[in-house]
């Protein structure tokens, strides 16, 4: 630095201080010119002033950019934090799922092991009782198999690895065939069945086996939960608004409003808490809804306590509305 | 006089198996299908031992265990907690709540019967009459 003025040289430290302070607000070069001008008590030229203003506006632009960057960083951090929370939640759900599956698998296994050991260790069991115990073992083994199959099925659907075989399906036929397959069960439980099926409906492009699975699930639920003494199940099929509408209605004890969404969740069963809990995996409705939604339909339930339940689903026919 | 055992479990086939085993070995057996009923049965029957399932409707086994341990006159009743939940945290929870033994389902029926005998002070071997 070679300023001619002696006062300035004597006060070099002060000048440096002022330069640094000003350089924060405007550019370093401008600061230097400005300080020099003031120190020398000289007026600034127009060009110098313009330069100072230019640098000052540059600094303002940079400062805005910095603010913008800082806001972007904050948003990205928040997003990451949220994603992390979601992952944690997923991890927790997975843990819950595994814990529930384990519990559900261990329960039938417990009966199977206990009765097998009883038969091994107790030679004096009478023939009739032996038969009863073997019957329980068989039933629990079936329950275990069904559960394993459903868990595997659900895992396939959820991971997108399920094979969907699509074809034009007549839902009227699916319903009639399912009803025929279940007629023996209806008779055993003394349940009156009424089906209201139209003459003809449009075909829907779906997986035939999957639709049979959905119908079997809804009908077996209806059988399980309908009135024990005067069981009654109604099935209705209709076509309107570019969709097929299927209703399965029972005259059971009904489902409370708070339980109506819960029953579609995995492993959530609703039974009479004071007596025996319902048998089943607690996966049927969850899988059924996933199947219907895969084909663009919806599934829901309408019910009131003591007034039975009506499960409905739609399937788009692909026809113009 | 034969010892009295209460089975509290909501799984009918497990109840049937344990009930058979206990009766076979000469115990007097009572059954409760949920936690609430279990407490009522404890009050009514004053059993020597309770086989307590953890995941029961109305009141869980943990809660029943806690309620039971709050009563001084029930302190002598032995509690075996039976559960399909077998993680360390759950076992510890059961034992902290006051259970004497925690058994994970599925269990060995021989081991279960041996544990019952030990807890009731009948020794691991069947008593001679």
Write the layout of secondary structure elements.
The complex is a heterodimer of chains A (321) and B (129).
Chain A: H1 6-10, H2 12-25, H3 28-39, H4 46-121, H5 127-158, E1 166-169, H6 171-188, E2 192-196, E3 204-207, H7 208-225, E4 232-240, E5 243-250, H8 259-262, H9 284-294, E6 299-303, E7 309-316
Parallel strand pairs in A: 2-4
Antiparallel strand pairs in A: 1-3, 4-5, 5-7, 6-7
Helix pairs in contact in A: 2-3, 3-4, 4-5, 5-9, 6-7, 7-9
Chain B: E1 4-8, H1 12-24, E2 28-32, H2 35-45, E3 49-53, H3 61-70, E4 78-83, H4 88-96, E5 101-104, H5 109-119
Parallel strand pairs in B: 1-2, 1-3, 3-4, 4-5
Fraction of residues in β-strands of chain B: 15-25%
How much helix, percentage-wise, in residues of chain B? 40-55%
What letter string, H or E per element, gives the SSE order of chain A? Answer: HHHHHEHEEHEEHHEE
pLDDT < 50 runs, ≥5 residues of chain B: none
Q: From the helix content, strand content and strand pairing of chain B, which structural class follows?
A: alpha/beta
Strand order of the largest sheet of chain B: 2-1-3-4-5
Query: How would you sum up the major sheet of chain A?
Result: 5 strands, mixed
Mass-distribution shape of chain A: elongated
Alpha-beta classification of chain A: alpha+beta
Task: Provide an overview of this structure.
The complex is a heterodimer of chains A (321) and B (129). Chain A is an alpha+beta fold and 321 residues long. Helices cover 59% and strands 13% of the residues of chain A. Chain A is built from 9 helices and 7 strands. Chain A has helices at 6-10, 12-25, 28-39, 46-121, 127-158, 171-188, 208-225, 259-262, 284-294, and strands spanning 166-169, 192-196, 204-207, 232-240, 243-250, 299-303, 309-316. Chain A has a 5-stranded mixed beta sheet with strand order 2-4-5-7-6. Chain A has a two-stranded antiparallel ribbon with strand order 1-3. In chain A, a hairpin with a 2-residue loop joins strand 4 and strand 5 (243-250). The longest helix of chain A has 76 residues, at 46-121. The model of chain A is unreliable at 272-276 (pLDDT under 50). Chain B is an alpha/beta fold and 129 residues long. Chain B has 5 helices and 5 strands, in the order βαβαβαβαβα. Chain B has helices at 12-24, 35-45, 61-70, 88-96, 109-119, and strands at 4-8, 28-32, 49-53, 78-83, 101-104. Chain B has a 5-stranded parallel beta sheet, sandwiched between helices. In chain B, strand 3, helix 3 (61-70) and strand 4 (78-83) form a beta-alpha-beta unit. In chain B, helix 2 (35-45) packs parallel to helix 3. Chain B is globular. Chain B starts with a strand and ends in a 10-residue tail after the last helix. The relative contact order of chain B is 0.16. Classes of the chains: A alpha+beta (321), B alpha/beta (129). Chains A and B meet through helix 4 and helix 5 of A and helix 1 of B.
């Amino acid at each position: 630095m070679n300023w001619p003025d002696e006062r300035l040289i004597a006060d070099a430290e002060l000048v440096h201080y002022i330069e640094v302070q000003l350089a924060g607000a405007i550019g370093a070069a401008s600061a230097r010119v400005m300080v020099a001008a003031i120190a020398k008590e000289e007026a600034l030229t127009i060009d110098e002033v313009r330069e100072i203003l230019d640098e000052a506006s540059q600094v303002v632009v940079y400062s805005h950019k910095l603010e913008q960057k800082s806001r972007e960083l904050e948003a990205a951090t928040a997003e990451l934090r949220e994603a992390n929370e979601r992952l944690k939640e997923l991890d927790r759900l997975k843990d819950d799922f595994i814990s529930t599956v384990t519990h559900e698998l261990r329960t039938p296994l417990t009966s199977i092991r206990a009765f097998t050991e009883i038969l091994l260790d107790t030679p004096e069991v009478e023939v009739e009782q032996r038969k009863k115990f073997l019957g329980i073992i068989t039933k629990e083994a079936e329950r275990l198999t069904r559960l394993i199959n459903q868990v595997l099925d659900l895992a396939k659907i959820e991971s997108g690895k399920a094979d969907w075989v699509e074809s034009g399906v007549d839902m009227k036929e699916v319903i009639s065939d399912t009803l025929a397959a279940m007629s023996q069960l209806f008779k055993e439980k003394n349940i009156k069945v009424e089906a209201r099926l139209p003459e003809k409906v449009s075909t829907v492009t779906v997986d035939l086996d999957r639709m049979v699975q959905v119908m079997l699930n809804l009908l077996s639920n209806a059988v399980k939960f309908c009135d024990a003494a005067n069981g009654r199940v109604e099935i209705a099929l209709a076509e309107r608004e570019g969709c097929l509408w299927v209703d399965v209605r029972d005259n059971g004890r009904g489902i409370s409003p708070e339980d109506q969404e819960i029953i579609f969740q995995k492993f959530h069963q609703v039974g009479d808490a004071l007596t025996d809990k319902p048998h089943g995996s607690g996966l049927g409705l969850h899988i059924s809804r996933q199947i219907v939604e895969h084909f663009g339909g919806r599934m829901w339930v309408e019910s009131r306590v003591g007034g039975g339940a009506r499960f409905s689903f739609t399937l788009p026919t692909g026809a113009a509305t | 006089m034969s010892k009295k055992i209460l089975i509290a479990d909501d799984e009918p086939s497990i109840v049937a198996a344990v009930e058979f085993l206990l009766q076979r070995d000469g115990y007097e057996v009572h059954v409760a299908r949920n936690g609430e009923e279990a407490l009522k049965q404890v009050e009514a029957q004053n059993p020597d031992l309770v086989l307590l399932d953890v995941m029961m409707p109305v009141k869980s086994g943990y809660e029943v265990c806690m309620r039971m341990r709050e009563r001084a006159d029930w302190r002598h009743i032995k509690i075996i907690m039976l559960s399909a939940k077998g993680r360390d945290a759950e076992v510890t929870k059961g034992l902290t709540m006051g259970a004497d033994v925690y058994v994970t389902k599925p269990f060995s029926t021989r081991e279960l019967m041996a544990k019952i005998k030990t807890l009731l002070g009948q020794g691991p071997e069947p008593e001679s009459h």
